[in-house]
Amino acid sequence: MDDNQFRNAMGKFATGVTVVLTEVNGAVHGMTANAFMSVSLHPKLVTVSISENARLLNKIKSSKVFSVNILASNQEEYSRVFSGKLKDDFRIEFDYLDGKPVLPGSLAQITCEVTQEHTEGDHILFIGKVTDTHVEEKKPLIFYGGKYHSLDDK
């Protein structure tokens, strides 16, 4: 099977949209990701999958911490900024949770300390021990078939 066939098949899985952030030397770095999952309740662990070519990879390796920001339906612009699709000069005022940068207004903010790294294919899986969370009651931003959707879509 070719790459496009595989990508098309994976696009049939509706996911939430997250922005993964970390801070190195006072500068916040981030990327949009949908490869995120809960791993364990005891202890509380999550995983994010980062491409070996992503600029964020070495930032997380250096800082050993990250936050996962689950985007609300009104935060598509954040997703576009952190995926590199919105090139305008977009200014973001970050909030902080447990000393880690988070996106204000996110549906959920999850802060983590890296406990393990696993290389699988062309990605690194970071296992993060959850150090704090903040949740708001909003509708999620959904990604399906290469497009953004919300639960309000008809």
From TrEMBL:
Coiled-coil regions listed: none
PANTHER family xref list: FLAVIN REDUCTASE, FMN REDUCTASE (NADH) RUTF
Full protein name: Flavin reductase
Pfam family, one: Flavin_Reduct
InterPro entries: Flavin_Rdtase-like_dom, NADH-dep_flavin_reductase, Split_barrel_FMN-bd
Keywords, alphabetical: Oxidoreductase
Chain ranges of the Flavin reductase like domain: 10-150
Organism: Oceanobacillus caeni
Highest rank taxon of the organism: Bacteria
